[in-house]
Write a structure and sequence with these properties.
homotetramer; alpha+beta; Four Helix Bundle (Hemerythrin (Met), subunit A); paralog of FGE (formylglycine-generating enzyme); 2 domains; four-stranded mixed β-sheet; three-stranded antiparallel β-sheet; 14 strands; 31% helix; binds fe (iii) ion; iron (chains A, B, C, D); DinB-like (chains A, B, C, D); oxidoreductase (chains A, B, C, D); Sulfatase_Mod_Factor_Kinase (chains A, B, C, D)
Chain lengths: 420, 420, 420, 420
């Protein structure tokens, strides 16, 4: 999106494309045709739609403009599988994606194959615009990786309405482990630079790299755990107005939130519904599926606060990108947060920062300019990636963003504090 | 439901059961697994759910209470596939039926086979309660036939949200035919008897047979046609408050009704979406997919009124049950209203009558008493059956009922008038 | 509305008009300007609006068409104070009546005086259309009496949101009285005539008088009391699905109904908010402020049913019109149901009958034809009048109608039974 | 709120209190009792409620804790007139304030007098906690001034639903003036300090004063005018998705926004409803009653952006506090934006900044800590004050905040740009 300093070579682009497409296929492999139809809310999309939309993206932004004789298997797919790009034409109602039974699974797989073949052919050609194409393929792959994360979280949400509590991935009980003691690490702050510097792929909203001033702060060595969260519950945290933003309390009361999404209590034990079916809540694992409102209330209850995104970036940017993420190629990973002190992976961590343009931000011209820019209101940035984030799209500057009431992503938190 | 005077013999029961189950299978045969998942509104259910729920009915009301060693393939199906029988235990949320991807299509077919085998075994036995069982099987088959009608109308509604306008049954264009001239036939009324007399199967709400007094009236020889309806549209009928019930006008304005459900105009021609895909509106065929509010406004515009259900029954009860209905066994019929002057079949005809208990009505004890009785408020009776109604469940005393705002059934109307 | 056989003389018309207008003034007298602004829901209107709308009715339907030089104090009042007569022109949004602070109280009183003077002048003239005018004045007075009932019930609803529980009329505690034992009186039914015969004033919907056939039935000698109702509550009636219409149960659960509107429990005693402020529930008085859904469920719980309107009319039409009604002239009456066995007054009694046109019903031409006809769907008839109904508008054929979920009127019930 | 460096002397506190209370009285003076009841949406409150709530504030936070024998005229007022302070006890539903007809206008005036007398007595005493009391009185007066602004904007909203378009203040047509040419002034930015330094009164959220880094920027010399806005309208700005945040476009379409709130077109001229009744839109005056979404879309259409709050503060903090504001004492001012290039007054200017805590922000202990802190999510900061803002509460560091969809305040905008 931002013109990378060193674009991918054709071979690199092909390899990335192949790995990425294989991962989508691997994610869909365990599912029945019926499973791929689930749409449980407007925010979520069916698996079949994700598979088609990520394919449309390559077709719309690469094949159609650059391959004169390119023919889509069905011209109406552009209407069905455009998500929100107004400059790419009209599109199907977002909340009705679950009502598109046709094209069916095989037709979508054929669509994928058709676009993959066409793109492979294109990448094999020596063309003047080869670098541009490689850049767009890279963007398309990162786009597909974002949808891989959505695919599994949307699927979990969809399955959660089935009283049979279906299993997506083998359950494998977690070993009981010792917890990581909570510690706060100090940072001096000062006038620092954050944001992406343009080396390698990044989304437009990660730049420009720019100066910002930070007061001294402390940040926790690990995310808040389920054990911590149960302490909040047992202390009456959900019902104590002093901890809550007014709007958060109103949502919590209207939705009758008493615990994270997918939890229930059974004979005194907390259980949760996961991609591996029902599981007892793992006390030392990071809490997941909490809203910003809950995270913010927890932090206040704990005598702390959420970090800003700049504080988070500064604290962890030198930490190598490794952890409990979705694997490469067809390795779909653990798909659940694991006990430990990881930063990258496990759970996205809510920050106190509004999703706002960095100083000097300028989205690209045309439909791709809609990728991030038009979401810059009322959303909060999360940092760190989750167990559903493909490893190769993770970066220290990566900003994901959601509304403060949303809980269905792999969302948790990490505490921070002012230095008195 | 009402104890029939002459119960079915075991062989008759088996034959009815076999025919009925075959028809459900025939209805589902053209559908992909994805198609069977569609649930487009709370009023409608997925095809897969209909297939399972009609099976659960036999299991719940016959096998479980009467076959001591009967084992369900999955005890949780009782929760998933109970519709609204509170006395048969708790049940899954009605508006979340489209989120039950598992059990999948094959599991539901296995469930059907399992119950069919168990029931066949039971029917083959000579038992003291053989007549009761035969009566319950007959009820279960009529119940399944009701769901066959819902299955196709729910499916049509579900498919209608797909911009690809999918075809369920081969399109076969209609031949252009001459219309049937409108004529009103006079009836004297007086003190008459209506309702079912107990000979053969009927639902509880069709009886008791009872006296009612009718003033002289006239009733049309044919349903209102699409040609008639276009006259109403072109005369500004949808926008003229004088024709409308206040509540009807409010709904029409809120929903922006300008024509029957599924219609649109294209180059000056009216088109409609049907189970045979998009079709030009057939001018001489009965109008279908209009609400009670619209039917009532049309009648007032036409200087007429809707008949009461007693008027309808009296006028047509001697007409043999034949017409454009769903066929026997696996014959699913035309699935669209056809030009002509039929009473049975084509379209259900809205009556002016509230769905109310007949004098002396008493529902059976237990969960089956919930079949009709608890719906007796705010719904309107329709008479005559439709092209989606299995022929062998049709009777002159048959009362179906829907809310005045509903349009997704095969609903039309026939005019009546007072004799001055 | 129906042309009366013997129209009022001018003097009778003036006397009725004077009595009626005086009663409205008496009802408004205890209220502050702020009180007259309350609009607590779309179904209810502010007192100030009632005072103006009943005035507009005389202006719109008598003065404007019949007095060539009549000048309204403000032409825009026609827009503000038309309720729902589409043929009388556009009108202000019904749910925004509480936002019309101007014209203020004095301006509305001036408007009333202006129209009263103009009408008195008109009535004093000898005119060819004198009988028509007398008939319209009579209609206008009955219309105003209907609004007098709404005025007090809307006011009660509006005041009920004030935590100070304001008193409208002096509290006067009720004496404790003995209850009236419940008895069922038998009626033979048969082919009977009901409806208004045209002698004296009646609304269009009360006729034509017509034949109907009734099976033998029994009807209770008194309305259901608060003591009876507490029995229903204590027996778990609100939570037992077997007693309820499905739609009723859904509403009861959504609204969390556990008792009649305005009730609460305090130290083991039931209290209720009334026009006389908070009061302990009077055990022997008729229960009031229950919906049709609740009334119907109560009747089923009690092994009975609600009477039809024909059954009610037949049973009580020979009983003289007397009882706990709103008085004449400025006598506003008790304004609460009183212990006893009255039929006329105390509480309106829900019937099992849909509000439907009688056979041969034909509303008058023009805007006055909208008076009743356009409400004939989804509403239920109530019979008997209430403590808020002016005595002189009560008749045995009087049909009032409300939606089954509504509770803010003085609504109660009386039981009936089939004769086995 | 923040402990001021030099607290008010008792005489200063009394003078401020007297001026402030007089202004509230002056604002209410032209209103009828009915006018003071208007509540047109949950966000707005009736004038009568504002008068009582601002009184309760002094009672709750000064008199009750510090005057042992203080007696409220009615203990239940604490429930009625607490707005949102959970730590000050339960409170009446916010959206039901318009249903509190009693206490009436006179009772509220008596309540005001009672508290004023009690407070005057307290201020006259020499007490150890005199400085604290003076500080709380100052806070209470600033609180009342905030409510004075709400009082007039809520009133305008309430009156706007009256088709008679009532006049609050004499209309006085505006003279036609020449416009101010648009110019952008450059600022270097760099590492700067913003926020309140503690000298004189300020709300907690205005501090701590802290460093922030700004890139070079330009900011307009005047707000966007109605003439500018009509250019946006005429260029199709409301319908062009490219200018809009996705969420903003969805709101604009749902609410059918085609122009600022209160505007309509009549014979080719734009009119608007104001506190001075209907007025032609003054072309050179600042546009008012636009949401953040609209302001943001306008700025993008204009090739600019909204300033951040830091940019705004830095640009204008040396400009003396003078302009078209609400006057002192009983001078209620112009109550409409005036042509010109003012910063303070006329219209609040939307900034691009989320309402977030400044680094190191810590709200006071107890209920007063709820004053601002619990609103810090999803709201946007506005700067500059409006024609409805009392002059003596204005400061360069003042942050007001509203939701991006809100339009009923005196909200406009000023453009900014990056320096390329
Ligand atoms: Fe996408
Ligand atoms: Fe069923
Ligand atoms: Fe009226
Ligand atoms: Fe306040």
């Amino acid at each position: 999106m931002t013109p990378a300093l060193a674009p991918l070579t054709p071979n690199e682009a092909i390899a990335l494309f192949t790995r990425t497409r294989a991962r989508s296929d691997a994610l869909a492999a365990p599912l029945s045709p019926e499973d791929t139809m689930l749409q449980s809310m407007e925010d979520a999309s069916p698996v079949k739609w994700h598979l088609a939309h990520t394919t449309w993206f390559f077709e719309e932004f690469i094949l159609k403009p650059r391959v004169p004789d390119y023919r889509s298997p069905d011209d109406r797919f552009a209407f069905l599988f455009n998500s929100y790009y107004t400059q790419a034409g009209p599109r199907h109602a977002r909340d009705k994606r679950g009502l598109v039974s046709r094209p069916g699974g095989q037709a979508v797989r054929d669509y994928r194959a058709h676009v993959e073949d066409s793109l492979a052919t294109l990448l094999m050609q020596r063309r003047e615009d080869g670098d541009e194409i490689a850049g767009l393929v890279e963007l398309g792959c990162h786009h597909e990786m974002q949808h891989q994360e959505l695919l599994v979280t949307d699927l979990l949400h969809g399955l959660s309405f089935n009283p049979l509590l279906p299993v997506y991935k083998e359950p494998e009980p977690l070993e009981v482990t010792a917890g990581t003691e909570l510690r706060f690490d100090s940072h001096e702050g000062g006038l620092v630079e954050i944001g992406h510097d343009g080396a390698g792929f990044a989304y437009d909203c990660e730049g420009p790299r720019h100066k910002t001033f930070l007061s001294p702060y402390e940040i926790a060595n690990r995310p808040v755990t389920n054990r911590d969260w149960i302490g909040f519950i047992e202390d009456g945290g959900y019902g104590d107005a002093r901890h809550w933003l007014m709007e958060g309390l109103a949502v919590a009361q209207r939705e009758d939130w008493q615990h994270p999404l997918y939890w229930w209590q059974q004979d005194g034990t907390w259980w949760t519904f996961t991609l591996r079916g029902p599981q007892p809540v793992a006390l030392e694992a990071p809490v997941v599926h909490v809203s910003y409102y809950e995270a913010d209330a927890f932090a206040r209850w704990a005598g702390a606060r959420l970090p800003t995104e700049a504080e988070h970036e500064l604290a962890f940017r030198d930490r190598p990108i490794a952890g409990n993420l979705m694997g490469d190629g067809d390795d779909i990973g653990m798909l659940r947060p694991m006990p430990g002190a990881g930063v990258w992976g496990d759970v996205w961590e809510w920050t106190a920062s509004d999703f706002a343009p960095y100083p000097g931000f300028r989205p690209p011209e045309g439909a791709l300019g809609e990728y991030n820019g038009k979401f810059m209101v009322n959303q909060r940035v999360l940092r760190g990636g989750s167990c559903a984030t493909p490893r190769e799209q993770m970066r220290a500057t990566y900003r994901t963003f959601f509304y403060p009431h949303q809980r269905w992503q792999m969302m948790g938190l990490r505490l921070a504090r002012d230095v008195a």
